[in-house]
């Protein structure tokens, strides 16, 4: 699955100003829910919070990949955010995060969920990619960096 199939420009935000993990999860929910017919913001938020209770999705080096499964979702949806100032996300390395890639998937598609998480983690493991994402000046640039086949993040 191509990331451009699940991540849209209107779910990409550069230099977000939220100040807490909870506010970030709420912002993700607000962006993702309209893309998922029959799914509410609360459904998305509850799914993300439920997953965070199992352990933080802050994977270190300033990156978090919150994700959740939704019973009523018919397709996967992603949200990409960079932060104006890093936010405490209970990451495994205890460092605040400034790059967040959230993934919401239908409950009955665990294989696609894992493949997509693996692809995102591969991209975000690239230091040049993360540096470019952090320097992105607007939503369009951030989106293009992440989904273009010829970008530093490909």
Automatic annotation (TrEMBL):
Which is one GO molecular function term here? protein kinase activator activity
Domain (PTS EIIA type-2): give its ranges. Answer: 5-149
User: PROSITE patterns per the record?
Assistant: PTS_EIIA_TYPE_2 (PS51094), PTS_EIIA_TYPE_2_HIS (PS00372)
A biological process term (GO) from this entry: phosphoenolpyruvate-dependent sugar phosphotransferase system
What InterPro entries is this protein classified in?
PTrfase/Anion_transptr, PTS_EIIA_type-2_dom, PTS_Nitro_regul, PTS_SugarTrans_NitroReg
Gene3D superfamilies per the UniProt record, alphabetical: Mannitol-specific EII, Chain A
Which PANTHER family does this chain map to? NITROGEN REGULATORY PROTEIN (PTHR47738:SF1), PTS SYSTEM FRUCTOSE-LIKE EIIA COMPONENT-RELATED (PTHR47738)
What is the name listed in the Swiss-Prot or TrEMBL entry for this protein? PTS IIA-like nitrogen-regulatory protein PtsN
């Amino acid at each position: 699955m191509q990331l451009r199939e699940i991540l849209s420009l209107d779910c990409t935000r550069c230099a977000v100003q939220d100040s807490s993990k909870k506010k970030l999860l709420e912002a993700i929910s607000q962006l993702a829910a309209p893309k998922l017919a029959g799914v509410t913001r609360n459904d998305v938020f509850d799914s993300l919070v439920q997953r965070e209770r199992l352990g933080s999705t802050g994977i270190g080096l300033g990156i978090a990949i919150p994700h959740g499964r939704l019973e009523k979702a018919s397709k996967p949806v992603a949200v990409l955010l960079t932060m104006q100032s890093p936010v405490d996300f209970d990451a495994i390395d205890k460092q605040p995060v400034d790059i967040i890639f959230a993934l919401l998937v239908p409950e009955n598609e665990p294989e696609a969920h894992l493949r997509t998480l693996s692809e995102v983690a591969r991209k975000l493991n690239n230091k040049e990619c993360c540096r470019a994402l952090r320097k992105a000046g607007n939503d369009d640039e951030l989106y293009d960096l992440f989904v273009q086949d010829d970008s530093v993040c490909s």
